[in-house]
Amino acid sequence: MMRQAVEPIKVRKRPSFWKRIFSWVLPIPQEKRKSSKGVELQVLAWQGKFVLDTGKVNYSFGSLHDVMVGSIKDIVAWGVQAERVLMLGYGGGSAAEIVHQDINREAEIIGVEWDDAVIDLAKKYFYTQGVRLLHDDAVDYVFRAAKQSWEYDLIVCDLFTETKVASAVLEGDFLESLSKLLGNKGGVIINTMLKKEESVLFLGELKKRFNHVKTWDGMKGNAVFLCKMGGIA
Predict the structure, then answer these.
(1) Taking Cα atoms as reference points, which of 233, 210, 226 lies closest to residue 68?
(2) pLDDT of res. 58
(3) Is the pLDDT score of 4 beyond 50?
(4) What CA–CA distance (Å, rounded) separates 202 from 200?
(5) Do 79 and 232 meet the contact criterion of CB atoms below 8 Å apart?
(6) CA dihedral for 181, 185, 191, 192, sign (positive or negative)
(7) CB proximity list for 95: less than 8 A, separation 6 or greater
(8) What is the mean pLDDT of residues 4-30?
(9) What is the arithmetic mean of pLDDT over 78-105?
């Protein structure tokens, strides 16, 4: 059976010409929203592009984009495929754009995002092309998916409220369900901002549930864990 022709990737919305120019000097506010938990979300024009920030951290297409580029390329080089991909905590779609542009243009991507304000901004300014974007609680989704034996090649877990990682991400039940969603040689990226002592404890919990675990240390302040089932490529 022949595959249908794939449309070129549509670039995300860009700031106006003058905003692009001046955004290399200072970030320029574009739009503000309140999240479902009262966090102030802000779309800024910065260094020629739109980014999604809160008052404390970047949510998409700023420093987080660099984290996603490095960790996704690292886990793919480790032998993880990207045919069926699950994004937990979709944000503006940084990780989805990286997968489609740099790894696999035809990847089937499911994005799960609980915040309707983030979803609206993602659709308006950022990247949702070729993504099945679900308005749902990502932790609940993982438990349901595990019970129904759904399977993914690559999972990106980026569940935060500003600098605080969702507490469920650190719990054994969630990690066990997450491991059940991975096929043979499937892998998961878990982004956190844990301190050194917390990271050591979390690493031990991961090693109980995944065949191979390592850290990605390419961004100061982020403790990123790469976990893989099966053998090493």
Answers:
(1) 226
(2) 67
(3) no
(4) 5
(5) yes
(6) positive
(7) 68, 72, 87, 156, 158
(8) 77
(9) 95
Least trusted range by pLDDT, from 107-116, 193-202, 217-226 = 217-226
Q: Where in the chain is the domain with CATH 3.40.50.150?
A: 63-228
Asked if residues 229 and 183 have their Cβ atoms less than 8 Å apart, the reply is yes
Q: How far is CA 59 from CA 14, 126, 162, 209, in A?
A: 17, 11, 8, 28
CA angle (64, 68, 74) in 5-degree steps: 145
Check pLDDT > 70 for residue 23.
yes
Task: Report whether 97 contacts 72 (CB < 8 A).
Answer: no
DSSP 155: E
Q: What's the CA gap between 223 and 40, in Å, rounded?
A: 24
Nearest-CA neighbor of 224 among 197, 187, 198, 192?
A: 192
Q: In terms of pTM, does the model score above 0.70? A: yes
* Fold annotation for 63-228: Rossmann fold (3.40.50)
pLDDT of residue 126: 94
Which tens digit of pLDDT belongs to each residue from 206-217?
Answer: 999 999 999 998
Which residues 6+ apart lie within 8 Å of 76 measured at CB? Answer: 82, 103, 154
Residue 97 gets the label, from left (phi > 0), alpha (psi -120 to 50) or beta, of alpha
Given a cut of 70, is residue 8 above it in pLDDT? Answer: no
Identity of residue 181: L
